[in-house]
Amino acid sequence: MTAILPTEMNSAKHPAGAKWAGRLTVMLLTGLGFCLIAKILLEHATVAWVEIMGTILLLIGMATSFGVAFFGGAGMFFTLERARAEEAKGAPHSPHYRQRIRFLWLSAGVLLAPFILRQWHMRLASPAPTDVYVTRPIVFDEGQYSIRRDGTNVFSLWRDMFDGPEFIYMFADGQRFLCMYDHDTAYLVFVADLNPIRTNTATAAGWPHSGVDGQYIAQAAARVTTITNGITRLPTWPEVKEVADYLNRLPTGQFNAQSLDKCDLGLFQVHTLPKQFLLQELSTNHHSLW
Hints:
Helices cover 46% and strands 20% of the residues. By secondary structure, it is of the alpha+beta class. A 5-stranded antiparallel sheet has the order 1-2-3-4-8. A 4-stranded antiparallel sheet has the order 5-6-7-9, sandwiched between helices. Strands 10-11 form a two-stranded antiparallel sheet. It starts with 5 loop residues before the first helix and ends in a 9-residue tail after the last helix.
């Protein structure tokens, strides 16, 4: 009879050893690779089909990496616990213990990265250096985006799965903030003004276009903004033009750093909003709320 070594016996009991740990690791890294490719495509997309492809790759990559990390990590954990229980009864030590532990650590890193490594604070776009920054919610992007100065809340904007701010520009006086906000079925461009005495002259200056319901924008802006000492109003045309000129001059890298519309995976951020879309929303020939 042929002798069976202890390591061979243990491998027969646990076929999900190095083979499955290796396969799951490859799947996990493949999912992260898809996310990285999606990041490159979305940040440099100039045509619609590239943006669509990038979005599809992002969804596939996120589903693969986080799915494998969660379900594969849970399965590997219980496999290790079972192996430890058998070893306590006198079974030989698993020869694939280290491979499984490495996969568990990798899975834990992927699952915790969006919480630990995400950007909690982001400085606002401004023509001059500023100490005003945006604080993002702790749990993904559900909750208030708080605009803070010297640790004090200036105003807040609501964000959830369908609504949220995408770009905020602070003017040089530090009292006005032009906000570009995705309101699901409409796109809002408004100003959070900390000087309530200031009057709104936007409609008299040709912006927004007559085909756009300015009253709806003003009412919706008031609903999504929490501001104590100030008002929300439509922007004036000089304000719109200043922000448009700023965006035109802004390099892609700086725009990505200042854009609030991003999928933050912790390990890296995927920016899904092209700069040209914001410029289109600020143009005078824009005839709709979207």
